[in-house]
């Protein structure tokens, strides 16, 4: 098996792809956001519970390839119990990870376990898979923020 | 002629009778197939998406631009006359290819998609009333769904869907029931791109015509793999794309019975499709030009002519026989793999195999196969309702052309072994 | 890269500054121009109908089919990714070429004609009410008349015509009066194909925008001969054809401001233009794909990219200067001929000269010139209202590209001497 | 000047092209038929006076190239005072003259002076010019015939 392929399909990814964590509906979520990739038909729903600008719980459901399932599963592990603003920074960092030819050491350290998805860089057609859950996160947080603004104004 | 002499099967044998084809020599007519992908010999198994082009086609296009290029139909000078003749010669070839009654029934468009849209807008839209029905099947490509949805939205007509059984075959009794006095048109695919099913179109047309309902056939997956005779079929419209028939991109064919085409409104307005223009009043040109506004894809149509010559030199008897061999071989090999499920098991099938694996999503399959030099398609194949019908998010699809061989299929099978290694 | 190294002006000079172009060397980039017609060196002077293609374009198409051919946007495998990238790279090139704000504003179609029809059907038709007006000029090509007539017929809207003066210039005061509260769209040609006039489009757009009326420019004759900046012009739509800009047939561009395109209905339905399809409901894809249903003319678009590279290497400053030289030379020579009348004497002219002879009809002129190796067009040039305006049944038209030279024009003049010999 | 060109533009043609005969409106024609070539914009009106299945007078008006003007002018000279059925045979013969690679001697003899238009054979784009008036004749006679049928039934 070739190296690029092994770098893409690391153990962790195969594992999370097969057994995604927090794979369920959330009771009373603050927001539930659909993510959809028309190219391949991957579709997921991300549930977020937000309180005082912090993500206190998250989960997802859906169908998709190993990359999109694993990426979302790993994302949720990481964003639980962090402030919205940090989740947004993570989004940016993750985006750099999968699109920049050589992400900085700082980015890599910041992303920690999420760096297992770096291998997708060499598979341009698969970047959308790796970022599907993340785009749902961003949209969900934006919506949540604008709703909060609406409700507090 | 140089195009013919560069065609290997012609030099070895002038009579394209069955079994005389040297398929290995013929493969070398397709320059793309000799490339390496990821350091492996390329096994191109995505022919339902688009086919590769023989040298004769590539050369015909280059020759057109180097020697004959001019605008058509309007120039008095010789160059323009030559361009017009090569362009119009392809119309005659298509007429023969489909056995149409008249060359005026052949309209050049961009592809199957545009052909269907043309019929939707110029034939259906002016005629449809609220409550009318367009009947399509549950195995249509988006190109044979969305144009009808758009026209239904404008007119208040409705889509009715012919169901398919678990083997991916049209349910003819249900079809019979669905044909009713509200049905204005039946639009079905001749061969399904996602399932491979060859539909019983002859029978379906007879049934529709008994109720005087016209029938459009989407031949995108059929025209290059079966021999089509529109007069024998008696279909009202037939549509297909050059790029899926070894020809250039950007060219397609709408065949329509003359009396329909005559009665239809033009689709686009512009040069060539008019007879006289005044600001107050414009007269449209006669068939087929009424439907070919503006400068057409001249070089593409000329190249398409070379593709049709190539196809007829190989011969449909040979093509059908060879592709069925490949289908049988691939089916045998794939169904022997446990954890692999073929989606689409119609009795009559073209050389298209859709499948899913228990252990891996089609997208992952395709990525891994690509690294083994195997090009297949993964996804919904522009047929989302088919995915819903079979309750799968997506499938992997291998589709074969006559230039494929058993080695390509073996390479696919070896590639799948890698998928299993990684995923189970 | 091979495409660049086969480009002579690049090897002689990397900086396409004015006067550094070796026009003679450059002519040899166009293989068709070296042919003989009727035993004479060909003088191709029908560039307004279609332009010849440089080797770089012909090679780009052949290379695409030999090496990169696959369907776009949907494949996971590398070949398909490569096809998609070459296709989409041209979109970026067109964006730069027109200085559009975003690549999403560039829609690939078959040609200028289809681009205008798309706007007529998807932008105008749903919005027009009886009594509304579409304003066009008296010097439009049929492609910028008939689509509006068709849409007027469907909606009860009307065409209003901006008159032109005897020099073939738009009458701006009359234009000002015609812009009124019923005007929904102005659609004018940037450069007239029958008369050569370069219209004062910047001014016309400003005048229309003062009344919040959007403007479509038909750039079929302009895009390859002037430098176009859609943001500076602030036009709402811009349309042109690849085949008149040294690129392949079967490719055209619709530029539209994003907010218009976003608000518009899709034009054709099918693959690639949708985001999800259910029989009950279909969601459309985002720009630009919403307007690109079905498999596009991939090879054509790739070849068009090579044409744009070629054009930018030559440089518009050089092109404009050279073509004006040729126009001046030809005008001088032709107006010295007694019994010859130039139709279209606008102050601002592109390198197009329409003329009539007292002694001979344009059709006879063209036949005789053809026998002297000179290819010009004779007829109404798909602009019948222009013929009526100038009260001629038809004209002869010589139209020049930068690869033409003074010898071509001399050959035309010698050819005309034969016409006089025969007819007077 | 090249031979093919001379064969196309014979003196007679140039003469009839410049001074078409019977170039006028006809008073009380039995039929007036438009002929139109969208390719080049040539347009003519043919006037026929028919009596007892015979063409007793004919004329035309219009604009066009030397070939279409001369061809129509020569046609009219020939069809005056002949039976309709013979005019229809002439149409067929003329068609053969301008499209067949080598028309028979019989055809040529039958056509007589009209054979000056044979040179058009080598100019495929000009055949429409040479036949414009003839197509108008055929359409006019067909219409006249069907009208007569209508009026006698
Ligand atoms: C069954 C079927 N119909 C229609 C089409 C549309 O063809 P095109 O994209 O060439 O317009 C396709 C191609 O994918 C197809 O497979
Ligand atoms: C001014 C103008 N508009 C539109 C067109 C139509 O272009 P196309 O035939 O490439 O669609 C032409 C080409 O003849 C033209 O000259």
TrEMBL record, chains A, D:
Question: What's the superkingdom here?
Answer: Bacteria
The residues covered by the NIF system FeS cluster assembly NifU N-terminal domain are 9-129
**GO biological-process terms attached to the record:** iron-sulfur cluster assembly
Q: Where is the signal peptide?
A: none
Pfam families found in the cross-reference section = NifU_N
* Molecular function per GO: iron ion binding; iron-sulfur cluster binding
Q: Which NCBIfam families match?
A: SUF_scaf_2
Which protein family is named in the record?
Belongs to the NifU family.
Which protein, by its recorded name, is this? SUF system NifU family Fe-S cluster assembly protein
Source organism: Colwellia psychrerythraea
């Amino acid at each position: 098996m070739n190296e690029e392929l092994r770098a893409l399909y690391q153990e962790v990814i195969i594992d999370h792809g097969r057994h995604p964590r927090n794979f369920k509906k959330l009771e009373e979520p603050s927001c539930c956001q659909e993510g959809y990739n028309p190219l391949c038909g991957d579709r997921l729903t991300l549930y977020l519970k937000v309180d005082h600008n912090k993500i206190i719980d998250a989960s997802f459901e859906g169908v998709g390839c190993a990359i999109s399932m694993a990426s979302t599963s790993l994302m949720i592990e990481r964003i639980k119990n962090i402030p919205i603003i940090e989740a947004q920074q993570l989004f940016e960092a993750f985006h750099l990870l999968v699109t920049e030819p050589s992400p900085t050491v700082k980015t890599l350290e910041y992303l920690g376990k999420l760096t297992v998805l770096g291998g997708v860089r060499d598979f341009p057609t698969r970047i959308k898979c790796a970022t599907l859950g993340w785009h749902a996160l961003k949209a969900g947080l934006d919506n949540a923020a604008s709703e909060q603004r609406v409700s507090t104004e | 002629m140089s195009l013919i002499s560069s065609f290997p099967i012609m030099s070895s044998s002038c009579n394209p009778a069955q079994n005389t084809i040297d398929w290995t020599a013929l493969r070398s007519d397709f320059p793309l197939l000799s490339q390496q992908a990821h350091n492996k010999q390329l096994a191109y198994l995505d022919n339902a998406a688009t086919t590769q082009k023989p040298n004769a086609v590539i050369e015909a296009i280059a020759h057109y631009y180097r020697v004959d290029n001019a605008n058509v139909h309007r120039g008095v000078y010789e160059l323009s006359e030559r361009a017009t003749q090569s362009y119009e010669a392809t119309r005659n070839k298509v007429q023969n290819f489909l056995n149409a009654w008249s060359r005026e029934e052949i309209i050049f468009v961009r592809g199957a998609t545009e052909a269907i849209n043309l019929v939707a807008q110029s034939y259906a839209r002016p005629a449809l009333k609220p409550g009318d029905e367009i009947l399509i099947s549950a195995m249509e490509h988006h190109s044979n769904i969305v144009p009808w949805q758009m026209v239904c939205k404008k007119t208040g007509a409705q889509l009715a869907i012919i169901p398919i059984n678990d083997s991916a075959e049209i349910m003819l009794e249900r079809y019979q029931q669905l044909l009713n006095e509200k049905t204005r048109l039946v639009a079905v695919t001749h061969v399904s791109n996602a399932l491979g099913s060859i539909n019983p179109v002859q029978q379906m047309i007879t049934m529709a015509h008994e109720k005087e309902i016209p029938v459009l056939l989407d031949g995108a997956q059929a025209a290059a793999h079966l021999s089509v005779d529109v007069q024998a079929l008696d279909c009202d419209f037939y549509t297909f794309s050059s790029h899926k028939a070894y020809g250039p991109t950007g060219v397609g064919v709408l065949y329509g019975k003359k009396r329909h085409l005559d009665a239809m409104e033009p689709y686009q307005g512009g040069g060539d499709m008019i007879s006289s223009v005044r600001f107050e009043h414009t007269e449209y040109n006669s068939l087929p030009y009424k439907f070919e506004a503006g400068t057409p894809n001249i070089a593409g149509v000329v190249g398409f002519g070379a593709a049709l010559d190539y196809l007829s030199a190989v011969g449909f008897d040979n093509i059908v026989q060879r592709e069925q061999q490949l289908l049988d071989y691939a089916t045998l090999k794939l169904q022997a793999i446990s954890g692999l499920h073929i989606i689409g098991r119609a009795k009559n099938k073209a050389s298209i195999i859709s499948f899913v694996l228990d252990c891996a999503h089609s997208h992952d399959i395709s990525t891994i196969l690509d690294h083994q030099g195997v090009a297949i398609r993964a996804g919904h194949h522009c047929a989302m309702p088919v995915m819903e019908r079979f309750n799968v998010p997506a499938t992997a699809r291998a589709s074969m052309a006559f230039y494929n061989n058993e080695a390509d299929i073996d390479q696919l099978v070896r590639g799948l072994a890698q998928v299993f290694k990684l995923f189970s």
